[in-house]
Every structure is written in structure tokens, then in C-alpha cells.
Design goal:
With about 260 residues, the chain is of the alpha/beta class. The protein contains eight helices and seven strands; from the N terminus they run E-H-E-H-E-H-E-H-E-H-E-H-H-H-E.
Length: about 260
């Protein structure tokens, strides 16, 4: 297959959370290949450093900062450091999340707070950190990662699904708040994406067969499928698209 190139992304500063593996890694690779100046954060230092070194060796621009996005002051400081290196972000991809399975009966108030912190809270405060620079630069794009899990009522994920449903409200509200500054805010909503984590922990051969049966297109979704839509939503081609939710789920039957 041959995929699109976006001239407007060349040299554009991009910040991606959770960029060391999975969907985040695919986005780091995709934006770097477009010539963007990519900065990304993750708690996985070894994987993040290796990815940045690999892309730099290819002549692309990728800078990694080890950071826990639930530490909001540290995360906002990392965004500031990336701005010093690459310029103020024109694209923010709020990708970092953690879909650990859990029983609703066992949830404590502290566990609730931890899961909201890793799946929702950081997205708002990252927007808060980048929006002033985007406004001065004439605009930008925020891409919030959601999930179809709450739409199809996946069991064993009540807190994750609550946070991901809230991403839709965050997207709509911030699209209105930031629209006057020509900053567009959209949600990218993946289906059952075959990341290595999902394959290792959750997706057996039987589960994959069931997923394909639920999808209109019975093929495995990949992180790259998500990254290609992220490129479009970040590029000038989507200049008048904001406040929307885009499903990349191969047409899940109950979506």
C-alpha cells in the first residue's frame, strides 16, 4: 500500500505521550517520517531512548524524555523542555493510558484517583501547557485518544471506560474553548488494536477470532492504522475539523 504525505507536518513540533511502545510508538514513527520534530514521553526509559536513537540515526528528529504523566508538574516541565528544543508544540497527541483489568467491587478511592490520573487527568493539563504556544503560533491540533471499550461494554474495565468516555466530553468542551485561537481538538477512538501488550496479556487466538467476527472488516487492526488518521488530524488538511470523534475500529458491530 501507498500512504499519504503531509507537507504541512514538515518541521512541525509534535508532543506525544506514551510514545515508547504500542500505538504511541507507531505515532512517533509516523510523525518523524513526515519530517516533524517529535518529542515524546513515557515511563519506559529503555524503550524510549532506543526509539529516539533509532530515528535520529535515520536522520529524523525525535527527542525522548522519561516522564510519568501522572506527575503533572514534571509532565508540564517536560513539555516546556521539548518546546525549548523543538519550538512550541503545534500538535499534541494525548495517548498515554493504562487498561489494566480490574473488578469494580475492589476499587478504592485511591485506586479511582490513580486510574483517572493515568487515563484522563494528564490530557487536560497537557492541553493547558501547550495551548498558549499554539495560540501565539497561529493554531494547532490536539488529538485525544479514546476507546470503543465503553461503547461495546467490554467487561472488567469500569474505571478505564469511565475515563475514556470522559475523553469525549473533554474533546467537545476544549474544541469550543480553543477554537477562537484556531486550535482544533478531536478524539481518535481505536477499536481492538493488536499491540504487543494486548497480544501478550489479553488476546488469545479465540479472542482474536471473536474480535474479527464483531468487525465489519474482519482483519486485525494495527497501531499504524491509528497513526495514519492521527497524521491527517494533525495536518493542515483537517483545518476545519474540530470537536469530532473518529473511530478506527474496522466497523465494530456494536460501536
Amino acid at each position: 500500500m501507498t500512504f499519504a504525505s503531509y507537507p504541512s507536518l514538515a518541521d512541525r513540533p509534535v508532543v506525544i505521550s506514551g510514545g515508547a511502545s504500542g500505538i504511541g510508538e507507531a505515532m512517533v514513527r509516523a510523525f518523524a517520517a513526515q519530517g516533524a520534530r517529535v518529542g515524546f514521553v513515557d515511563i519506559a526509559a529503555e524503550a524510549g531512548e532506543a526509539l529516539a536513537a533509532e530515528l535520529t540515526g535515520l536522520g529524523q528528529t525525535a527527542r525522548f524524555i522519561r516522564c510519568d504523566v501522572t506527575d503533572i508538574p514534571a509532565y508540564q516541565a517536560a513539555i516546556g523542555d521539548l518546546a525549548l528544543a523543538h519550538g512550541d508544540a503545534r500538535v499534541l497527541v494525548n495517548n498515554a493510558a493504562h487498561d489494566q483489568r480490574h473488578r469494580w467491587e475492589d476499587v478504592t478511592p485511591d485506586e479511582w484517583d490513580r486510574r483517572m490520573a493515568v487515563n484522563l487527568k494528564h490530557a487536560f493539563f497537557a492541553i493547558q501547557a501547550v495551548a498558549p504556544g499554539m495560540a501565539v503560533a497561529g493554531g494547532g491540533a490536539v488529538i485525544n485518544y479514546g476507546s470503543i471499550s465503553w461503547m461495546v461494554m467490554t467487561p472488567g474495565l469500569p474505571l478505564y471506560e469511565t475515563a475514556k468516555a470522559a475523553i469525549h466530553g473533554l474533546t467537545r468542551s476544549m474544541a469550543r474553548e480553543l477554537g477562537p485561537s484556531s486550535i482544533r481538538v478531536n478524539s481518535l477512538v481505536p477499536g481492538a488494536v493488536m499491540t504487543q501488550r494486548q497480544l501478550d496479556l489479553w488476546i488469545s487466538a479465540e479472542a482474536l477470532a471473536d474480535i474479527k467476527q464483531n468487525q465489519a472488516i474482519p482483519e486485525a487492526l494495527t497501531p499504524e492504522d491509528c497513526a495514519r488518521l492521527a497524521l491527517f488530524l494533525a495536518a493542515d488538511d483537517s483545518a476545519m475539523i474540530t470537536g469530532q470523534h473518529f473511530l478506527v475500529d474496522a466497523g465494530w458491530a456494536n460501536g
